[in-house]
């Protein structure tokens, strides 16, 4: 007999030596019912494993998520940007006759020429003979709207130190001129102790309610006050749909809380960071503003003064006849914006409380020092303080309900429980299959009459041995 014939068949070698439980039992059991029982037990185990494997795969490919909320405590927190707008685009005392005529359709829905304006009792000025060709609406808003020069903001404090209009960044919004405190995302201010007193950001703004030129019936508003939004400095403010409104005659205490969101990419979540054209960071507000701008440019061939873009600025007539309708359709959802949720975002929740302002002493002694009538402050003064009440923040993370590591350890556990198998056992199976394949190839190549002949008696003796 050749050494070849001496070797056991690959099946027998595999069954006797494998680390998979049970097979060596079949190979070594004396036959009859114990072997049948072992075969049944092995089949049962493999069925159990198949079922568990299937259900684990199914639950992995459902891509379920769980939400993890943690409260993190910190020694200092980055202070957010605070944007304020007066609810008034133009101050009436800064508008001249020609401006009134130019803006009349935009502000009141009626086109009034200069003689009509004069007939309404306006004093003629040097602009009565001028035409407003080439004047852009944003230049008018900037020059004749709300600004923060000293008489409009008698007090501005950051952690007890005075600040001024130089610490604000200008932007255009739905309400005209808006000013953002702490707008530099690379150089954010920090709050290091909790609470309001002497902390955070406090300002007193004179809204000049008798200079309001807004009309609710066209595209303006009927309110008087300040709109304020606390936001991430990387995110442009959207003052018409977000923010809180503050009324004169109050001191608003705005306690803020930071919430960080981490969302998951598909297929677990829906987040996606797009590349925006006019903003560095992808944010929902940035996306909505660009979307509004695109819809208006497509239908009106111009860009509203408060939206990003490079199209020429819309004149007051187009603002009234076209832009208003398109923006209304965007807001009602008839014109769609495709803005997915960003994968990371920071938002701020606010809780407000109010105190009356001013008190008797301030009214009677401080107001005259600021050149104000005693009753003026209550009608025009908006005071607000923005601060972290607690130096902690909330982190809301979307996590995979089952990640790849958990999936493989679950499968490993089930393999151990049902099969007694590991990755190395799989290698044994592979080794066996490889031997079988090589044997098969060798047989067919050697045109194996001889092999077939030697194979027969060998398998016969093998059968005998097994029995
Ligand atoms: C405007 O034009 C009228 C008539 O041409 C002239 O009498 C008047 O002085 C002009 N007013 C100004 C401010 O230039
Ligand atoms: C703000 O408005 C006042 C008039 O109310 C004006 O004198 C001042 O120059 C304006 N400041 C800026 C920065 O435009
Ligand atoms: C405000 O601006 C002034 C001048 O640029 C600067 O010295 C100061 O640090 C700023 N204050 C804050 C709170 O940013
Ligand atoms: C776009 O403009 C056309 C004509 O200018 C108008 O019929 C259509 O309603 C406008 N669409 C929107 C969404 O305003």
From TrEMBL:
Membrane topology: Multi-pass membrane protein
Transmembrane portions of the chain: 36-54
Principal location class: membrane
Residues forming coiled coils: none
Localization in the cell: Membrane
GO MF terms held by the record: ligand-gated sodium channel activity
GO cellular component, one term: plasma membrane
Keywords per UniProt: Ion channel, Ion transport, Membrane, Sodium, Sodium channel, Sodium transport, Transmembrane, Transmembrane helix, Transport
Protein family (similarity comment): Belongs to the amiloride-sensitive sodium channel (TC 1.A.6) family.
Name of this protein: Acid-sensing ion channel 1-like
Organism, as annotated: Branchiostoma belcheri (Amphioxus)
Organism classification: Eukaryota, Metazoa, Chordata, Cephalochordata, Leptocardii
